Amino acid sequence: MTISEKFTTKKLSVFFTLLFAANGSFFNANAEQVSVMPLNYVADKAISTNPEVQQAWHAFKASMHGIDAARSGYLPTVDVSASAGYEKRNYGIEEEYNRNTAELTLGQMLYDGFRTSNNVKRFERIQLIRYFELLDQAEKTALAASIAYLDVQKFTELVELAEINLKEHESVYQQIEQSVGAGVARAADLEQISGRLSLAQSNVMTEYENLHDVSARYLRIIGELPTQGTVKAKLSDDAIPITINQALDIAYKNSPNFYASLYNIEAQKANADSQKSAFHPNVDLSARYGMQDRDELGLNETRSEARVGIDVRYNLYNGGLDSANLDQAYQEVNVAKYQRDQTCIEIRQNLQIAYNSVQVLQSKIPSLANHKESSQKVKYAYKDQFDIGQRTLLDVLDAENESFQSNRSYTAALYDRQAAILTMLAEMGKLLETLNVKSDKFPAISELTDDPIALSADSICPKFDVAATLSRQAFLQKKKQQDNAYMSVTAMPSYLTIPTTPASTFVDDDNDGVANENDDCPSTPAFTEVDERGCTKYRSNTSNVEIGIPFLADSSVVRPEYMQEIARLADFLKEHPSKNVEIQGHASLEGPALYNKKLSEKRAFSVAEILIQQYGISPTRVKSLGYGIDQPRINEISVRANAANRRIEAVITEKGNRPPAMKDGWS
């Protein structure tokens, strides 16, 4: 049974798990099933009814028939012709008679300059292009449906906030109106609250307008109106890669749009090879058998004729048509290559923007939450102060407006972050998998080709971390000045236990016995054995070392002045090839636990990545893990405890052994 026969009778319903990773690796995005269930429903519903997905599906099915048409060039052709007619003429023996003829012709291509084989290859690549375009359209539709769902929920909540704000304004307006009527308040106060009341009413109408527009978009994409009381959806942060480079690696291995551009190049190359066939001879086997019941003179004489032979045709000149077609085909290959490069650039840009949005919003949400909580407290405090005559109603109204705006900003940020996560997953080609939208009714890539493209994206799509070139980290450091004690204490641990002494000519900030001017490792932790250059000394039986790397606040970038410690660890691993290392990140107890865990993971990953990429340590020997606040050295929140708890440790074991904290994954 051919592929077209296998899939012609199947209907488009719930969609599929992406099984097209060329290197066989998959990304474990462990989103909670209950949390993504509503997104699963709307994505499934949209994919099963969306006209663009249907169009891509039928384009894919049409490409199957294109392969069958191309393969027909290998098969023989059989033609039969017959005629029966009345003839009349004014010469010969008989002037009127009936003539009957019949002929059977068979042809078989023996050699056509590989035109047929290259046409088959081209249409096979076109089928794969349509397949990945189908996957890409499904990802885009699932993204649009999921964001439409989140937008309906977001503006539903914003409408409720605006209505509550309006009720507060109406209440204050009534109180001031009564006070003006009683001669207690001034008429100007009534005019002021009247203007604010109009603005609050306008805010409600604006939010309703926004809700109407996103509901209309929901109807267009999903095919039904949103229902009241929908379940809230929340994506797990496990779906977020540790670094942008890791996210780009996943995208280049899984993006259907990128793979479609790669197979388009292969299709155009096959077309160019097909055009070369015009410069080769054509060799065909032909056979013919015919008969007629009248000869050329019209005599009633049955004749038959048969022929079997090999026909060779070789074009010598046709006006330069073949050369022009070949040159055109080569240029089409170049066009396809630049289309691939453009696709790569767009994926990199879109993914960087989405990934950065996730990170920025994650950093903003705690601040917005604090603003919301503070505004709420101020609002209640102003109401209490108004009751004892220390605040006016307009003061209360100002606090109410501040609380409304802070609630609105916080709510919008929560939904915007989820939309950014969805966009990031779609750019990586992982949205359908994360939402658990799948079906076994569609082919995997292994069913369409035995020779998938072996991709090396690094040479095609170099990775860049745009965020690392910006000054956002400096801003965040300034924003978290209360966290700067970590920097000073980590770099100068002696200050924790030893009183400040008068300045002397010998300065040793990290208290390792090596003067600053001779210290290549300026932040070696206390009690660490160091060499004459102030760097950690490794021995053959070393099992656990704290690496002195002070990170900037909210940063996982290893600064150049602290690379020496990583270099020493790399030298030790090269001298002892039987050793493995696990880089462990630990955080202080201060701040949100989930945030600290993610930050410790990023910092450990940064050190491990430097060992692998810059110092050539095999990835099978290096692991990284972030423990967050799970293993504090000092179980308290203080300057001293924070400095001790925020650390990077290297746990060294023999191959085949695991560090105590590891449960699996060690090679």
Amino- and carboxy-terminal Cα gap: 44 Å
How many helices does DSSP assign? 17
| Main β-sheet, spatial strand arrangement | 1-2-3-4
Overall mean pLDDT? 79
Strand content: 5-15%
Largest sheet features: 4 strands, antiparallel
What is the 3D shape? flat
Into which percent range does the helicity of residues fall?
Answer: 40-55%
Element order: H for helix, E for strand: HHHEEHHHHEEHHHHHHHEHEHEHE
**Count of beta strands:** 8
The class by helix and strand makeup works out as alpha+beta
Catalogue the unreliable spans: 1-35, 482-504, 661-667
As a whole number of angstroms, the C-alpha radius of gyration is 37 Å
Domain OmpA-like: 538-656
Organism: Pseudoalteromonas lipolytica
Signal peptide: 1-31
Main location: membrane
Walk me through what this model shows.
It is found in: Cell outer membrane. Its main location: membrane. It holds the Pfam family OmpA. The chain has 667 residues and is of the alpha+beta class. It is 52% helix and 12% strand. Strands 1-2-3-4 form a 4-stranded antiparallel beta sheet, with no helix packed on it. Strands 5-8-6-7 form a 4-stranded mixed beta sheet. α4 (115-181) runs antiparallel to α9 (393-427), α6 (244-254) crosses α8 (321-387) and α14 packs across α17. The longest helix is centred in the first third of the chain and has 67 residues, at 115-181. It is flat and about 135 Å long. The two termini are 44 Å apart. Mean pLDDT is 79; it is low at 1-35, 482-504 and 661-667.
